[in-house]
Amino acid sequence: MCGASLSVGAMFCGGCGSSRTATAESRKRPDPRPNDTTIIARLPRPTGVISVPIPAGVATTVPTAAPTNAPTAALPSSVTFVMSFSTGQRVSVQGSGLIGRKPLPQPDEIFDDLIWVTDADRSVSKTHLEFGQHDGEFWVSDRVSGNGTVIRRPGETAESLEPGRRYVLPRGTRVEIADHSFSVA
């Protein structure tokens, strides 16, 4: 309290607003579960992102040195896709990435591309959409964005994306991310 004189029955000081009767001990709340001492063990986070399963029989390591007459295993290669944005931006991608106003991967995630969308109205989420490839096909996944994502495949009706689910897109698909969009070629 500030030392101001208070009338009888006053609960709060008119000068500083502090409680007349409250003390540090009276402000403590009782533990709602005093007998609950369960310790929840946290599982270790994975060290990397596994974005797509690797089919059986595909080489997953590159030989460090092979004899010159020995055949080498062919690793799957990425296909190039071009995204043309409504902002005029064109981006060629070959791997995985994030799209948003300021896309930021989680600490345990690794992406090939981070694509920034200029959006003065901030309708696009900071990390709005994830994309990648599987068997030469392009896919997108909404990252629980604020305004959602809609895809328009050629010759089909518009479809709203369920957050966290991957949708394979043929070339020519239009992807609407809030007030902006891009087409996949």
Automatic annotation (TrEMBL):
PROSITE patterns: FHA_DOMAIN (PS50006). Residues 25-34 have a biased composition (Basic and acidic residues). SUPFAM superfamilies: SMAD/FHA domain. Residues 19-38 are annotated as: Disordered. Keywords: Phosphoprotein. The keyword Phosphoprotein applies. This is FHA domain-containing protein. It comes from Cryobacterium gelidum. The lineage of its organism: Bacteria, Bacillati, Actinomycetota, Actinomycetes, Micrococcales.
